[in-house]
Amino acid sequence: MSAEKISIAIVDDHTLFRSGLASLLDEFDEIEILFESTNGQDLQTKIKNQPDVDLILMDINMPVMDGFAATKWIKEYHPNVNVLALSMLEDEKAIIGMLRAGAGGYMLKESTPNELLTAIKTVTEKGFFVNDLVSGRLLVALKNGDAKPIFSARELTFLQHCSTEHTYKEIAELMNVSHRTVDNYRESLFAKLNIRSRTGLVVYGIKNGLIVI
Hints:
Elements (H helix, E strand, L loop, with lengths): L5 E6 L3 H12 L4 E7 L2 H8 L7 E4 L8 H11 L4 E6 L4 H10 L3 E4 L4 H14 L5 H4 L2 H6 L9 H10 L5 H8 L3 H15 L4 H10 L6
Parallel strand pairs: 1-2, 1-3, 3-4, 4-5
Helix pairs in contact: 2-3, 4-11, 8-10, 9-10
């Protein structure tokens, strides 16, 4: 792919940020900006004329159609197009929501152009970009794939619930167990996978087919 440019679309409702980002990325020989969109609905219209885009940089908070809905639509109708979330939001709910929708990675808008370029290249080549924001110690867990951890049925059920917006207390109620039991499930998974965050658990689950989306 080194000889080929990576075709990018930028979806963001802030015109100054969008055009500024396009100018920055245009400086890289590896990148070609195909088009810009103001929201998910605008993206649906424009991608009809330029379906060969390799990757979409997707904002989350947008009017008309937000990044969650737009990413789900892309993965349903253009499954070969990669999505990289680019947002100011740093909370787990936003990160997990975009990963569940089908994004291959998550970057903050305060990232440097070189950091963004690395993420773009990685998602384009591998389909997934793992960074500290998303993973915690996920990379270590994935590298130990030769010794696959064994999960109980209840741990897998808990893992599935982790990918939703339910709080741990609500998960305990759904599983008809005490809050302490749910804490035990979580700590057991943390120990088995060498992961220290709920987001990391969800990323591991999605990556390894343990979470049904």
